[in-house]
Inorganic phosphate transporter 1-4
Amino acid sequence: MAGEQLQVLNALDVAKAQWYHFTAIIIAGMGFFTDAYDLFCISLVTKLLGRIYYHVDGAEKPGTLPPNVSAAVNGVAFCGTLAGQLFFGWLGDKLGRKKVYGGLFAIIISSAFKAVFDAPPYEVDALSSTVPQADYVWRIILMVGALPAALTYYWRMKMPETARYTALVAKNAKQAASDMSKVLQMDIEAESEKIEQVEKEKPRFGLFTKEFAKRHGLHLLGTTTTWFLLDTAFYSQNLIQKYIFSAIGWIPSSKSMNAIEEVFRIARAQTLIALCSTVPGYWFTVAFIDKMGRFAIQLTGFFFMTVFMFALAIPYDHWTHRDNRIGFVIMYSLTFFFANFGPNATTFVVPAEIFPARLRSTCHGISAASGKLGAIVGAFGFLYLAQNKDKGKVYAGYPAGIGVKNSLIVLGGINALGFLFTFLVPESKGKSLEEMTGENEDDEGHGEAELSSSTSHRTVPIA
């Protein structure tokens, strides 16, 4: 058996890019888009909810969400994501990627409709600073998040289950060969006997076993800690953006604008940051990830995120002068560039490549959930630190508890820890998915990798 390969996986590894691959990329990308959109739109939605439902008659300032309500809104989003990643990650290894993906999108679409139509209607406040249209804006923002899920659901259901899950987890070599024969447009032999033979020769280890701890324990520790630290810094940085924009004078105070104008100005500033730094960072990763490798990109990203955070924080008083604000925005944008040309891309990729197929979805879910735990720590931590300890309120201009400067110092320290924990993450560049599992290194020379391709020219992350 040693050295033999399962033809369906070998064909998948060596196949040239074709429509099947592009469809898989689009579907996966829509999933990430939905996740990111739903989480990052919360800051805009809470701005509007505060002005609509928490205005005070006769007050001079626009309404804002009380700290406990704001914490609840953000907490529900993050806690729901964390629980979902753990549960549906595990379910993906039990039922298959296709079934779970489709079910999740159905839940997202129905939940978005329920949130939008169950909320009470708008009431005019004493300032009329919150125009009636604001009530429609926050609902539209939430509904837009359901559109990619609805558009992607149909196409994902038309695609077959991934070949690796069908062959290596479900043990249906005939179905895997049939599915890939259609999408790759070539004849592929089923080879059911190979799977049966290996099942007899070698039992499989589970997630909570000494064997898994020996082979992948440090790897899982590396993917969970780095994703935790990244999201602690990344989501905190996004949540305090509006405070930073106000502190440097890029956006005027809330009381000088109506609700829609304020949200528009914040969204415009965030869009500018995204177009000039976030999006280019991702494309740099696309261009260099198979040349530099995952490890090098993640290490570089954490390093420069640390450098630029401290470069903004230490001479903070210099950056707040009107003449230096453009420099501040450029430096601040570079932290987002190196987040995406760095750990905000690689932490998604690596867990999908280094764990065995039967545990891949579970381990990816655990890694992603640790990231959302970091987002919860960052969101709630900065919300607490931002409180005015005398009156128990949050200042509208910037986090009053520790200030923008100290917030940036804390974020820099978190990124430095991410740099250190990256050394626990293995490099997967130039290896097939089965080679990365290490299951061909057992004493008898048998394992799951015998069923797969021995090609080493690239990794194909189609689990």
The chain has one domain: 41-95+97-160+204-429. Confidence is low (pLDDT under 50) at residues 388-401, 442-461. The beta strands are 387-388, 393-394. Residues 30 and 148 are 6 Å apart (CA to CA).
